[in-house]
């Protein structure tokens, strides 16, 4: 096995109660559990970097998502980058850095069938945590959404909502790297300035304008070819009539309703899907395994060339996970929110 722990217990962040709206500290608890032991074909992994993602909010409600709801008293589900410290699987030896869907536990056991399981091979000079951000699931999600689902091409106009967030800021930069005109939608002057500095062609603060559709139309007078949707709701409603013939809408998330899933916004412009033969498709990155190697190569190259600047909001310490997640879901963060353990 190759690993002798100094401790017999692990720390976990568990769900104390189901959030009502934006999560608060009392929804979470810090608990201890016995050190898990890997079974046949399994690995014991020590968490190094934990990823905070808006989709986690959906796992906290008692309703179906693409993962089962987190049970009360159970650790939260989320993407983790860790180091294999004990292994019963020769394909994943001790010392291997891996990322996969796991739990908010400082040690956890997974098998080779874990969702999103990949070996991580950091390039010299790159911080490890970027491989949970722009050089990891965030970058892969942006790449898949734009190019595999959205079929974005050089010369086209791309609009991205939540453009100062982890996926949005990455999607905008890689769309520019492929020769697109990129318009970002954000919620503050600070975020607008951030994405302008990243090279976006236009930044629209939706909180500062009474008519977001008119502002987008000014920035994209010939219409929108691809709308990378992170928020849904009123923003989606405003953009659909601005889409060009055969436009594409890759749906990465709908953060606008994550904190109030019982009262989703009724989009009134869906007829535009027929009028302009728009293709709108939700996606999960790991539905596209055949393109991930190509995507990783391009992301690494764009960082090396200075065309992709990873944005990261990094916290220190396992116990900061709930606070970091609450800040994310409150709209207070810029870039990818990560916790180093």
Structure description:
With 341 residues, the chain is an alpha/beta fold. It folds into two domains: 9-133 and 311-340, Alpha-Beta Complex (Quinone Oxidoreductase, Chain A, domain 1), CATH 3.90.180; 137-286, Rossmann fold (3-Layer(aba) Sandwich), CATH 3.40.50. The protein is built from nine helices and 15 strands. The protein has helices spanning 55-59, 137-149, 166-177, 189-197, 212-219, 233-239, 272-275, 292-305, 321-329; strands at 9-15, 28-34, 42-52, 77-87, 97-103, 107-111, 118-119, 157-160, 181-186, 202-205, 224-228, 243-251, 279-282, 312-316, 336-340. The strands form three sheets. Strands 3, 4, 5, 6, 7, 14 and 15 form a seven-stranded mixed β-sheet that branches. Strands 10-9-8-11-12-13 form a six-stranded parallel β-sheet, with helices on both faces. A two-stranded antiparallel ribbon has the order 1-2. Helix 6 (233-239) links the parallel strand 11 and strand 12. The longest helix has 14 residues, at 292-305. The chain is globular, with a radius of gyration of 20 Å. Mean pLDDT is 92; it is low at 1-5. This is Putative NADP-dependent oxidoreductase.
